[in-house]
UniProtKB/TrEMBL annotation:
One of its GO terms (molecular function) is hydrolase activity. It holds the Pfam family CN_hydrolase. Keywords: Hydrolase. The keyword Magnesium does not apply. Residues 1-240 form the CN hydrolase domain. SUPFAM superfamilies: Carbon-nitrogen hydrolase. It comes from Marinococcus luteus. InterPro entries: C-N_Hydrolase, C-N_Hydrolase_sf. This is Predicted amidohydrolase. PANTHER family: DEAMINATED GLUTATHIONE AMIDASE, NITRILASE-RELATED. Belongs to the carbon-nitrogen hydrolase superfamily. NIT1/NIT2 family. PROSITE patterns: CN_HYDROLASE.
Length: 262
């Protein structure tokens, strides 16, 4: 699977400007051989938490979701559309969106772990639905959002559902970049899956973000990594047969003793 990650700086509080930005970027890419495009966390708004009450979108009538669906059809690519702020039944959620290359919305996930260090619990509601794998081109995939990376149990739950490829859209601060690097590799090693991350660079409201988006293989090798400071595009072709090979060579899943710890 050929994946293009847009390590995008985000215009704060301006969904229209961000849609235009992604639209321009898509138009500049040679997407002929690309199967899937990935965007970062909250790519329409950034972390403008006090404004989200007003600018989060109704998911039943969302410009951002329509945009992802149109882009998927136009460029014939699956869109791992990072996450966007949505408002449903009066509550704001940080929702990951996956759209297939026919424009069909195939999976949504509301970030369940809210970040105290960024004051998320004061403005957002945590998702209450367990994570599930979804399938594109016969590949079992999952998505968790940023802070979720610190909770190995949620990613193990995806692995036990057969997840081979995990996406992590993020707005991870540079002050904790060493955690980002170590934990994303650790999740790939312990679950023997590909991990693809898309973290924004740039700053907002006094926080500088870490960039450092990456492709990590099921052995834990970093195939490619984005810069800390700059916007950029990362592309990689993943050979999904490596997942089965690594799981055969180091049979972690066959060696589990869940009776003793679940
Ligand atoms: N956007 C986030 O979830 C940031 C997470 C974070 O700052 C951390 O885990 O550290």
């Amino acid at each position: 699977m050929n994946i293009a990650v847009y390590q995008m700086d985000i215009v704060a509080g301006d969904p229209e400007a961000n849609r235009q930005k992604v639209s321009r970027w898509l138009g500049e890419q040679e997407l002929g051989s690309v199967d899937l495009v990935m965007l970062p966390e909250m790519w329409t708004t950034a972390y403008t938490l006090p404004e989200l009450e007003d600018i989060a979108e109704d998911p039943a009538d969302s410009e951002a979701i329509r945009f992802l669906q149109e882009a998927a059809k136009r460029y014939h690519v699956h869109m791992m559309g990072g996450s966007i702020a949505v408002k449903e039944n009066g509550k704001v959620y940080n929702r990951a969106i996956a759209v297939d290359n026919t424009g069909e919305l195939v999976y949504e996930y509301d970030k369940m772990h809210l970040v105290p260090m960024l004051n998320e619990p004061a403005y957002l509601n945590g998702g209450r639905e367990p994570v599930k794998v979804f399938e594109l081109d016969g590949i079992k995939m999952g998505v968790v959002i940023c802070f979720d990376l610190r909770f190995p149990e949620i990613i193990r739950s995806l692995a036990l559902q057969g997840c081979e490829l995990l996406f992590i859209p993020a707005e991870w601060p540079d002050s904790r970049r060493s955690h980002w690097d170590v934990l994303s590799r650790a999740r790939a090693v312990e679950n023997q899956m590909y991990v693809v991350t898309c973290n924004r660079p740039g700053s907002y409201d006094g926080i500088t973000f870490a960039g450092s988006s990456a492709f990590i293989d099921p052995w834990g090798s970093v195939l490619q990594k984005g810069s800390v400071e700059h916007e950029e595009t990362l592309r990689e072709t993943l050979d999904l047969s490596n997942v089965a090979d690594v799981r055969k060579n180091v049979p972690v899943f066959d060696s589990r003793v869940p009776d003793l710890y679940e």
